[in-house]
């Protein structure tokens, strides 16, 4: 069931989204060579605490997970696509890092992710990240009243495939509201004009995930959470929480 949010509820979700935006900005600024992923998690925790927000990630345990998630961010390095658990791994020069974060504030949630390179970037990594951001922008542009879920999926997928990148099948965006994950699912590839009609008041997390090699294969790491590319190639993940309004898409997690 898809809940349509009121303008007041969307404003409340925007407040939560701005906490997420600040947490991601702080994590990116702290991400230097030699810093651990656990230290980045603590940076994000501090932002959430200061805002009086809680984390929908911490303790989250969906049906596929062997254990509850132990952190407030997902920190996915290099060949990790999504759901990376922060550890004592120290960032190295040239690492491609994707950070995903959520916040719950006054009963409403928002969710966002960024990808960036620590230290000296490889041109190929910059192209991968730029394409992910273009795919996200294309998906957001398609999130308008009168379109369908398939239009968002097609816009994201076309941007990824045209550039020669792979897409991990079975993972994509989702509805957001009182909970971090709500209906509907928002695939990263699909046919235009298909799927659920988009209505004002729907709030969606749109989140492209790209694999550099152009192949789609991935597997679950032994921790039961992290998804890694099968061929060891690098991956990028970006995300915004977006409200569909009569005047167009409103990005609630804009930084």
Structure, described:
This protein is of the alpha+beta class and 255 residues long. It is 28% helix and 24% strand. It is built from four helices and 13 strands. It has helices at residues 7-30, 37-51, 123-141, 149-162, and strands at residues 73-77, 80-82, 96-105, 108-117, 173-175, 182-186, 203-206, 209-211, 218-220, 227-229, 235-237, 240-245, 248-251. Strands 6-5-7-12-13 form a five-stranded antiparallel β-sheet. The protein has a three-stranded antiparallel β-sheet with strand order 1-3-4. The protein has a three-stranded antiparallel β-sheet with strand order 2-10-9, with no helix packed on it. The relative contact order is 0.19. The mean pLDDT is 98. It catalyses: Release of N-terminal amino acids, preferentially methionine, from peptides and arylamides. A divalent metal cation 2 binds at residues 111, 174, 207, 239. Pfam families: Peptidase_M24.
Could you name the key traits of this structure?
alpha+beta; three-stranded antiparallel beta sheet; 255 residues; Methionine aminopeptidase; hydrolase; 13 strands; 4 helices; globular; Pept_M24; five-stranded antiparallel beta sheet
In short:
The chain is α+β, with helices and mostly antiparallel strands and 255 residues long.
